[in-house]
Amino acid sequence: EPEVTQTPSHQVTQMGQEVILRCVPISNHLYFYWYRQILGQKVEFLVSFYNNEISEKSEIFDDQFSVERPDGSNFTLKIRSTKLEDSAMYFCASGTAQWTQYFGPGTRLLVL
Amino acid sequence: GESVGLHLPTLSVQEGDNSIINCAYSNSASDYFIWYKQESGKGPQFIIDIRSNMDKRQGQRVTVLLNKTVKHLSLQIAATQPGDSAVYFCAENIGNQFYFGTGTSLTVIP
Fold this sequence. Notes:
The complex is a heterodimer.
Chain A: E1 5-7, E2 10-13, E3 19-24, E4 31-37, E5 43-50, E6 53-57, E7 65-68, E8 75-79, E9 88-95, E10 102-103, E11 107-111
Parallel strand pairs in A: 2-11
Antiparallel strand pairs in A: 1-3, 3-8, 4-5, 4-9, 5-6, 7-8, 9-10, 9-11
Chain B: E1 4-5, E2 10-14, E3 19-25, E4 32-38, E5 45-51, E6 56-58, E7 62-67, E8 72-77, E9 86-94, E10 97-100, E11 104-109
Parallel strand pairs in B: 2-11
Antiparallel strand pairs in B: 1-3, 3-8, 4-5, 4-9, 6-7, 7-8, 9-10, 9-11
């Protein structure tokens, strides 16, 4: 059964550094999403992406964040200058229709 | 922000019993709801969804009930099994965003 994959599974970075979180969505999916989950808190929507552009973003998704689908198979989330409060589990999701979401296993980001 | 909350953070049930997990939401404009299951170390997994024009939807061993009058959503799991142990989230769609609850941790006692 096809599934969403994410790399790396864990990443540790220094505050102020740039990180790129990578996702490979399910191959025939057209909708892509990033969410984050701070430890012990709710899953929070970051951004949705469709037709090679952002279709919706939350207040969390500020200028420090960007997404890209560089090659038709990968979907990346970049955080330009990480802050301590960016430490969280980041989930990628993809779907064939809006809001039909299959989640990846997540990348745990720790900012020191 | 929007409020999607769960009444109980933890729930323990005996294997074979039915489980009921509750969720309250605050926005009457919510038009679509999803229940997710999240096992340790994994991403959320879709269980069942329901649109606001429905009050009940059934899947395999799961039923979602929607009471729009009191803004309440519940997930019923029949004949709960050890593999059902996980955290369960409800999520509501408002406009073009989904808002998740904090989750209820379900533990199935063999």
